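Course assignment 3, question 2. Fill in each field.
Student: A.L.
Task: Predict the tertiary structure for the chain below.
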Amino acid sequence: MDQFLQAAIEEAQKGLSEGGIPIGSILVHKDKIIGRGHNRRIQNGSPILHGEMDALENAGRQSAAIYKECTIYTTLSPCSMCSGAIALYEIPKVVIGENQTFMGEEEWLKSKGINVEVVNNVECINMMQSFIENHPEIWNEDIGV
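Answer field:
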């Protein structure tokens, strides 16, 4: 398995261990992790700290030139908010752990010229399926149901 997707999975597991939603993300620039994050909606009472947003936040301020050379890894297909941030910063590539439990804005990202790679990693799928089964009320809140 790709080391960066593995790092995103570790972030998701960290979120789960904190009582949160198991979604993790890694921002990579030239084969170096510059930002790590996981969904912290529950932990921080935040409406915006999804995994990708947390990874971007933890990467700190970067120049537009840096973002344009990055790949963002996420364990779950990115929602509209996270996809908007990816497009805003012109991150050229997104590697998605899985899109079976939730289909985000992949087609929209592609329409913006972003390279979208879906791995459908079994560990990512199982982690989310288990979470959704065990915590449907939290999941439904997170996706706006």
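Instructor remarks: The radius of gyration is 14 Å. Residues 76 and 100 are 9 Å apart (CA to CA).
Grade: pending
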